[in-house]
Amino acid sequence: DERYLYPGGLNSDTVTAVDVIMLKQLPNGACLSILFKLTLAILRHESSEALRRRQYALLLSYFQYCQHMLDPDVPKRVLQLLLGTDHDSEVTELEKVDKEQAELARANFSTLRKEAQAILDLATKDTTQGSASGRPIAHIVLAAYI
């Protein structure tokens, strides 16, 4: 979908770190819908271990996709220095992106908390009783949840 492509093309001479951070991301509502449906799919009783491995991989990819782009401990003044003093609008845009990501993180946490025990129980079962190929990814899911 061209809505998520960089408008100037991917020329390394024109792409900056700010451009990468400000690329269009899925709306928060779409992200939350993905997380909710993925959680339901993982918890389905008729789900096989092989299918759960793929679903765990999707869940981990989702977590990575939703990570903060900006370190919240970096002060606005440092961002201004890194971008140059004439880039106040870019700093404001970065703060807006960071605020949206923080809202998504809170909503993700709320969604995950509702089904956390069931997911943890299933991942623990897959870690202890799963196949040799299923144990590592279930272990990583446990670590990501904790």
TrEMBL record:
Subcellular localization, as worded in the UniProt entry: Nucleus
Keyword terms of this UniProt record: Nucleus, Transport
Highest taxon of source: Eukaryota
Sequence intervals crossing the membrane: none
Methyltransferase in keyword set: no
Record carries keyword Chaperone: no
Coiled-coil residues: none
One Gene Ontology cellular component: nuclear pore
PANTHER family documented for this protein: NUCLEAR PORE COMPLEX PROTEIN NUP205
Family named by the database record: Belongs to the NUP186/NUP192/NUP205 family.
Protein name: Uncharacterized protein
